[in-house]
Specification:
With about 280 residues, the protein is an all-alpha fold. The protein has 11 helices and no strands. It has one domain.
């Protein structure tokens, strides 16, 4: 269970760091780019991935490129959402993006959900709507757009990861390949926009990358430690992140979720449990 706790804490830490970057005068886009340098090195050192086969269908390469583009783009969106809409709304949107991937699994991969899972997906969508809608917590105009982009973006990323996994490539190899590609594309985008690189943003990016990788690594170790209980790991991590993220947002950053968002928070927990147990 210790691995699950670490995974939850590291996931919320990523959001906290993104929230603090503006006050630290860190360029989020640069930090996100360099995050993939640290995450990639740790993936190579700790997970020791074997080189993936180059003989893959064109569709797999398209999915790889899509992941390389979407990972940093959605990470920047996550940073904007945390700053403008708050940690509470962003964590709910990110964790319930599984509704997008489960819908795609039914429509694209033929994985038809059970009635219980479908009910959980419906509850999850209602939870996201309640959590994101409105401005009663004093957030700026347009803030609701960013959590919706997080919701859709992470859902598409999960779909692409599932698609690549079906090619038979090992997860560590996929992870390292995508991190390297995301780093390269992020640096190219920064160079094209004539970004002025700073040591502060580089250091912040390395710290962010350690937290990002630690979240993934601890989640993997949690599944290994509780190999016979994947639903327990899935539900505990997702519920833990939603609840801890809400507590941190409220206590540390003074976010004020009204009754509608608190209802969304409660429904998010119920939806995760329903999906994991279905």
């Amino acid at each position: 269970m210790i691995w699950i706790i670490f995974s939850v804490c590291c996931s919320v830490l990523v959001s906290v760091l993104l929230r603090l970057f503006r006050g630290w005068r860190v360029e989020a886009a640069q930090a996100i780019a360099f995050n993939y340098l640290a995450a990639g090195l740790l993936t190579w050192l700790l997970l020791k991935p074997a080189m993936p086969s180059l003989q893959q269908p064109v569709s797999v390469y398209v999915a790889f490129v899509g992941l390389g583009v979407l990972l940093p783009a959605v990470f920047v969106t996550l940073a904007r959402s945390v700053v403008t809409a708050g940690i509470v709304r962003t964590e709910i949107a990110q964790r319930l993006s599984l509704v997008v991937s489960l819908t795609a699994a039914a429509l694209v991969f033929g994985d038809v959900p059970t009635a219980a899972k479908a009910g959980g997906m419906a509850l999850g969508l209602i939870a996201v709507v309640l959590a994101i809608a409105g401005r009663r917590d004093g957030s700026p105009t347009g803030a609701s757009l960013w959590p919706w982009m997080v919701f859709a973006g992470f859902g598409v990323i999960d779909v692409l990861l599932k698609f690549v996994a079906q090619s038979g490539t090992s997860f560590p190899a996929v992870l390292l390949s995508v991190f390297v590609l995301a780093l390269m594309l992020s640096l190219i985008a920064l160079l094209v926009t004539h970004a002025v690189f700073t040591l502060r943003s580089f250091g912040a990016g390395l710290v962010l990358g350690v937290a990002n990788f630690a979240n993934i690594y601890c989640y993997i170790r949690g599944h290994q430690a509780l190999a016979g209980h994947p639903s327990l790991v899935f539900s505990t991590v997702n519920i833990g992140v939603v609840v801890l993220g809400a507590l941190v947002g409220i206590v540390a950053f003074g976010e004020r979720p009204g009754p509608m968002r608190l209802t969304g928070l409660g429904l998010a927990v119920v939806a995760i449990v329903a999906i994991s147990l279905a």
